[in-house]
Amino acid sequence: MYNKGIPLSKLQEYSENTAFIEALKFTGKHAIINDIINPEQLLKLQKTWLLKNVYFIKDWSEKCLKFIETTDWAADYLKENGFSEQDIEQQYEKLSLSEVNA
Asked: What pTM was computed for the model?
């Protein structure tokens, strides 16, 4: 069912499907994604995940910020979708402040 011939519209359905997300979490391995989908589908899934984790969210998660930091296209993609460099920097500052206060 999850083969390399999945259309992008179907991939978006999967990215929003709780059971699919939980199944990927259960495996504990991101490498499984590479066996399931094409690189362009993986990129679509990553972009969907990123936007869902930043829109209408006051404090971005540490996982989300690490993804932005380690992915060369993520910050530019957020800027294309209405976020500014300052928005991103503020989230890093909030995270570092929460770590200091913890």
From this structure: 0.63
Q: Are 72 and 42 in contact (CB under 8 A)?
A: no
Q: Between 36 and 61, where is the model more confident?
A: 61
- Please answer whether residues 88 and 75 qualify as being in contact, where contact means their C-beta atoms are separated by less than 8 angstroms: yes
With 0-12 CB in 10 A as exposed, 13-18 as middle and 19+ as buried, what is 68? Answer: buried
Whether the CB-CB separation of 65 and 92 falls below 8 Å is answered with yes
Q: Are 97 and 65 in contact (CB under 8 A)?
A: no
CA distance 3 to 66: 29
Mean pLDDT of 23-50: 72
Q: Are 69 and 77 in contact (CB under 8 A)?
A: no
